[in-house]
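Before we proceed, please read the two lines closing this message. Tell me what the C-alpha cell row says about the fold.
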Amino acid sequence: MRLIRSIGTLALGVVAACSNAEPPMAPNATPVAPDGSLPNGTGVTASFTRTGYNVTGTATLVIDKGVAQLDFSPDFTIASTPGPFVYLNTDANPNRGQPLRVAALRARTGAQRYTFQVPAGVRYTHVIIWCDPFNVGMAQAVIPPTS
C-alpha cells in the first residue's frame, strides 16, 4: 500500500513538473491584416511528419518582401494535446536556431492560413508544431530549398 501511494505521488509530481515546462524563447510573429500586402509566388510545400504525435497533411510557405504566408492543406490533421503552437525555424527544435512563434494552432484539422511578418535574412528550414506547455515537438515539415 505504501509503495503504491509513493509511486502515485511521484507520477503526480512528474505530470505537474512537465506542465510547468518553459516554452521556447522565441519572438512572436507580427500578424499581417488580411487586407495588407500579401506575398507573391508559389512558395514551397512540404509534408508534415510525426515527431511525437500523429499528423497528416502539408504546409506551403511563401515569403516575399518580409511577409510570409503559411498554408496548411485541407487534409491536415494532428493528434490532440494541450497548447500547440506553430513555429518557423532554422532547426527542428524551437529551443535552438532562430525560431519564430507564428501563432497558436487554429484547428487540429483542415485548411488554415497564417500571414505574418518575418525578419530579413533568415532562411527558415522547418515548420514546426510544438506543444508549448510541455516543451515537446508534435510534428514538423522540412522546407525544401528554393532555387
Notes: The chain has a mean pLDDT of 86. Residues 22-142 form a domain with the Immunoglobulin-like fold (CATH 2.60.40). The longest strand covers residues 44-50.
